[in-house]
Amino acid sequence: MTGSTREAAIVWFRNDLRLQDNPPLHAAAEAGHKIVPVYVLDDAAAGAWPMGGASRWWLHHSLAALAADFAARGAGFVLRRGDAAKIIPELAAEIGAKAVYAARAFEPAMRELDRRVDAALKAAAIPFHRHLSMSLFPPYRIKTKTGGVYGVYTPFSKACFEDGVSEDFLPAPARISGMTVNGDRLDDWRLLPTTPNWAGGLQEEWQPGEAGAQKRLTDFLAGPIKNYDEARNLPGTAGTSKLSPHVHFGEISPRSVFTAAARAGTGKGVQTFLKELIWREFAIYLLWHHPALPDAPMKPNFENFPWATDKKALRAWQKGQTGYPIVDAGMRELWRTGWMHNRVRMIVASFLVKHLLIPWQEGEKWFWDCLAEADLAANAASWQWVAGCGADAAPYFRVFNPVLQGQKFDADGAYVRRYVPEIAALPDEYLHAPWTSPKNVLTNARVTLGETYPLPIVDLMEGRNRALKAYESIKD
């Protein structure tokens, strides 16, 4: 380490990997500190939920982009790996830090980590300043009229809209007064896949980092947001923002996205998008008040649900080999790009927990490993919603029919043909149910069911009836 340690401060980056509208960074700069920005890779702190493969790929590129942004402003970016509860206080002592700034975390394991860091810093008489940076609202602030906890999205969202989102915007510092501090080499963390390299599709699809996030937002506001209320249901069109990985890693602040979208107009598309941003807040809120959300159903009767154990069916679902094209397309999109269209997420999740009767936790784990945006709160809340066991959940007896869903939302087959090319030559009328095709149609399309494309692994009616029977057994 070289350089003066007078009035140094640590800015501890977590899922706020940006320079613009970053409250901890802004506060440290405003206080006139020499800033040491640091990111700590602490897998142990995440408990049972360390980052999955796709998230680690994204993290590597996001950290590289942020390091370049710091370098352009005259500052280094320190990487350290290990127990953050030891590393942050030790680094503070190493540089003679007068304060530590960080974004407020809401996941149970991260809250515990913050308590440990705070205790260690207090023992050294170093203030630990935490700022709202990764969400629109502190989850403990939104309360019912009687001071209780919301369990339904609509009144929660109404309370959020009434509370309002601050339009303050904190520009990125033009220059950062920093220090030279030793750290790890990013490549040594081995966040990227080696052999086989499964990340080619992610590389083609995404530009991790603050610049990529800003471009996604600009492109979305320039057109797709106007028809978002309808286009968001059509997986074959570019009708969504695809901002979720960028927002998850904090490459753009939720406040920036919300306020920019709100200024885009008052149409249905804008309002629907704003409500989706509030759904993210609802998930954070649920996790704050229900720390067991990722593991246990919120509705106690689902503890006794008679789930099935079918490893073969689970594997077919994971690999996009169920014989139902819209399901298989979604699962292949997830594997290839680290993302899945939201409408299709509901379809594949319903198929797993209802037609296959496989526990929602299995789907949650697979999404956790495959989603670049894997977010503990949103992943858990969404899976519980589909499974019928969470807050404001869809009724369990609402079972998506993947054939009808495909025919309705991918009528021209653009989505299925993109990700399930082996049946691309089938006419639209048979594309979402290949087994109904006449033999000559299959032959002309070079499709041999059971060989080039699988037969359905479950009969839809039988699967639905089995699911409803299972639900009846725990209703009371």
Characterise the protein shown here.
With 476 residues, the protein is α/β, with parallel strands linked by helices. It folds into 3 domains: 126 residues, Rossmann fold, CATH 3.40.50.620; 110 residues, Serine Threonine Protein Phosphatase 5, Tetratricopeptide repeat; 172 residues, DNA Cyclobutane Dipyrimidine Photolyase, subunit A, domain 3 (Orthogonal Bundle), CATH 1.10.579.10. It contains 21 helices and 5 strands. Helix 2 links the parallel strand 2 and strand 3. It is globular and about 75 Å long. The N terminus is likely disordered.
Entry keywords:
5 strands; globular; DNA Cyclobutane Dipyrimidine Photolyase, subunit A, domain 3; 3 domains; Rossmann fold; 476 residues; alpha/beta; Serine Threonine Protein Phosphatase 5, Tetratricopeptide repeat; disordered N terminus
CATH topology of the largest domain: DNA Cyclobutane Dipyrimidine Photolyase, subunit A, domain 3
Rg (C-alpha, Å): 24 Å
Quote the beta fraction. Answer: 5-15%
CATH evolutionary superfamily of the largest domain: DNA Cyclobutane Dipyrimidine Photolyase, subunit A, domain 3
String of helices and strands: EHEHEHEHEHHHHHHHHHHHHHHHHH
- Strand order across the largest sheet: 3-2-1-4-5
Number of domains: 3
